Amino acid sequence: MFEVLMYLFENYMDGSVTLNVDQDTVVNELEHAGFNRHEIGRALDWLDGLNRAQETVQTGPSYTSHAIRHYAPQETERLGYEGKGFLLYLEQLGILDPMTREVVIDRIMALDMREVDLGRIKWVVLIALFNQPDKKSALSLLQDMILSDAFDVLH
Questions:
Q1: 10 Å Cβ neighbour count for 72?
Q2: 21 or 121, which is more confident?
Q3: CB of 86 within 8 A of CB of 50?
Q4: Alpha-carbon span 37 to 50, nearest angstrom
Q5: CA-to-CA distance for 97 and 111, rounded, in angstroms?
Q6: Domain range spanning residue 98?
Q7: What's the number of domains the chain is made of?
Q8: What is the DSSP letter of 131?
Q9: Within 10 A of 39 (CB to CB), how many other CB atoms are there?
Q10: Ramachandran angles phi, psi of 111, nearest 5°
Q11: How does DSSP assign 60-113, residue by residue?
């Protein structure tokens, strides 16, 4: 499913997580690219969940920047200590606010993996920020971080 999400992010999204073409066209192209229908459906459901989570957080109670996040045991297991530390680091840098953090955690929990590695956490944050027009500067900073990590690996 995650590979489908990355493919969709790189090829179809332009400022929002809504796809720019009809769903049947996307499904056909993804099948032609080698993805199976089950994984495609799960990825599209994940994106719908992202939109719902963002709407819920925006209409729900607001969080202050001084709020402390306590993780449930299943969240700790899924994120790991490195993932939780990374999310805290992004908050301290101002890349994530508490509301976006909650969206990110929701979408990480929706992934079909027992433990999510740091690279995937970065991609989930990137997709979540990409869908929020007021977070363009945070998105740019995170993209720079991800690209610099990628280039460090190449050297």
A1: 10
A2: 121
A3: no
A4: 20
A5: 21
A6: 2-154
A7: 1
A8: T
A9: 17
A10: -70, 155
A11: S----TT--PPPPHHHHHHHHHHHHHHHHHHHHHTSS-HHHHHHHHHHHHTSS-
Determine the Cα–Cα distance for residues 35 and 22; give it in Å rounded to an integer.
17
The answer to whether residues 71 and 37 touch, using CB atoms and an 8 Å cutoff, is no
The reply to whether the predicted model has a pTM over 0.85 is no
Which residue in this structure is represented by tokens 């929706």? 110
Amino acid at 3: E
Count CB-CB contacts under 10 A for residue 52.
12
- The amino acid occupying position 24 is D
> pLDDT digits over 87-101, tens only?
999 998 888 888 889
pLDDT per residue as tens digits for the range 42-96: 999 998 999 898 888 777 666 666 777 899 999 999 999 999 999 999 998 888 8
- Rg for the chain (alpha carbons), in Å? 16
